[in-house]
Design goal:
- By secondary structure, the chain is α/β, with parallel strands linked by helices.
- The chain folds into three domains: 30 residues, no CATH class; 187 residues, Rossmann fold (3-Layer(aba) Sandwich); 73 residues, Rossmann fold, CATH 3.40.50.
- The strands form three sheets. It has a six-stranded mixed beta sheet with strand order 4-5-13-10-11-12, sandwiched between helices. A four-stranded parallel beta sheet has the order 8-7-6-9, with helices on one face.
- The longest helix has 15 residues.
- The termini are far apart.
- The structure holds pyridoxal-5'-phosphate and zinc ion.
- Zinc ion (ZN) binds next to loops.
- Keywords: Lyase, Pyridoxal phosphate.
Length: 399
């Protein structure tokens, strides 16, 4: 797995020789899965090393990295369960993939783990969210220097979360959007594991390997996920292509992507029937982790949708916030609003008849809501009570 290839024009490059294809599109690792089958033993890596529980290293033979240690060995292997309590009437069966149980609370750990096991020396990222936290934590565990470039307006609460892992944390003044390009050329001596780099996409494809293995020998009808840069969507598509080539899918699952309506360049391109995403002027949204007006893998995400006959859904702010509450109150899962767009999209697709009661839909809940302490406490949901009155208050609450 030393070759990178362009999904669009097919051009190949040696790993390390190019950051993007000459045609402008992002690259990913060329992976031959012709002989791949689901590994037999559980709790081991593909090469048979025991990790005690299933992690993404179960698929080591199709990854461009090996021999994980420390925190990197713990990424992936997240729960998937059906959540009837949030299924719409006459709608599909909804299966939730809880990426929030990764070591730093999001699927970003998958890409970071594979990246840090593959490259030597300092690592970095351009992010002020989950990716920054993930890279900082994995660098700490692997005793590497970490360069984290955050936007000037990043709130202190987020900085504090990242800073606890002791990276080199830079608050950048000026055009933050252009930094992604600045860090691509590699002459800073730092391996930047940005949102859609080949190593990150390779790690992040494993979420779809896990979903499909759970359904084997069948396959889910659809996989629904939030999209920002398009990195995770690329990984899911790559996984489906690889598993299909290995003959392990009874049918190709459709890929559906969800965006917040206030910043939805990929959904806009989808509605136009375009194959190219144009950058837009987004508005602020509570979906901070998917607020990307100029997604670097937007075209590839659109191609994933087109190739699998899926779709892209824009979710209104109010529906997204309602869905965040519903997931916590009815399914017991705390997520960021950035994740709730995905189940909100399922609701819309069920209402429009695109999903029916025969469909099995896997939804990737990309990150935990606990670390953002996001949900404001509704005063009416908390009662003050004196100690002596507790028995009465409890009897009152559960008649
Ligand atoms: C990064 C992130 C996304 C978006 O992933 P992309 O690969 O950038 O499309 C979605 N949800 C959460 C919680 C994230 O941290
Ligand atoms: Zn190309």
């Amino acid at each position: 797995m030393e070759q990178l290839e362009c999904y669009d024009c097919g051009e190949t490059y040696a790993f390390g020789d190019a950051a993007r294809c000459r045609c402008g599109e992002p690259l990913w690792f060329e992976t031959d899965t012709a002989g791949f089958d689901w590994p037999d033993a559980s709790g081991t890596t593909g090469s048979g090393v025991s990790l005690g529980r299933d992690t993404l290293w179960r698929y080591e033979s199709v990854l461009p990295a090996a021999t994980p240690t420390g925190l990197a060995a713990a990424a992936g292997g997240t729960p998937l369960f059906r959540a009837p309590s949030i299924e719409p009437a006459d709608g599909p069966r909804i299966h939730l993939k809880i990426e929030g149980v990764n070591p730093t609370g999001s699927f970003k750990d998958r890409g970071t783990a594979v990246g840090i096991c593959r490259v030597d020396g300092p690592v970095g990222t351009v992010s002020h969210g989950n990716m920054a936290l993930s890279v900082a934590a994995h660098a700490a565990a692997a005793d590497r220097e970490a360069i984290i470039l955050v936007a000037e307006d990043t709130p202190d609460s987020r900085l504090a979360m990242i800073a606890q892992h002791d990276p080199h944390l830079f608050r950048v003044r000026g055009d933050y959007g252009r930094l992604y390009d600045d860090t691509l050329d590699g002459d800073l001596g730092v391996a930047f594991l940005n949102s859609d780099t080949p190593l990150r996409v390779a790690g992040q494809k494993t979420v779809a390997y896990e979903i499909c293995e759970a359904f084997a020998p069948n396959a889910p009808d659809a996989i629904v996920l939030p999209v920002s840069s398009g990195g995770q969507a690329s990984g899911v598509w790559k996984a489906l292509r690889e598993l299909n080539a290995a003959g392990l899918l009874s049918a190709m699952p459709r890929i559906y992507l969800a965006q917040a309506a206030r910043c939805d360049p990929i959904a806009q391109a989808y509605r136009r029937g375009a194959s190219r995403v144009e950058s837009i002027e987004g508005e602020p949204t509570a979906a901070v982790s998917i607020n990307n007006a100029d997604p670097p893998s937007g075209n590839r995400a659109l191609a994933a949708v087109a190739a699998t006959d899926g779709g892209v859904v824009s979710v209104a702010e109010e529906a997204m916030l309602d869905e965040t509450e519903r997931l916590a109150a009815d399914a017991g899962v705390s997520v960021e609003p950035s994740c709730a767009v995905a189940t909100a999209a399922v609701r819309e697709l069920a209402a429009s008849g695109e999903f029916g009661s025969d469909d099995d839909v896997a939804v990737i809940l990309t990150g935990s809501g606990y670390k953002y302490g996001g949900a404001a406490v509704d005063a009416a949901s908390v009662r003050e009570v004196d100690r002596a009155d507790v028995p009465d208050a409890v009897r009152d609450a559960v008649p």
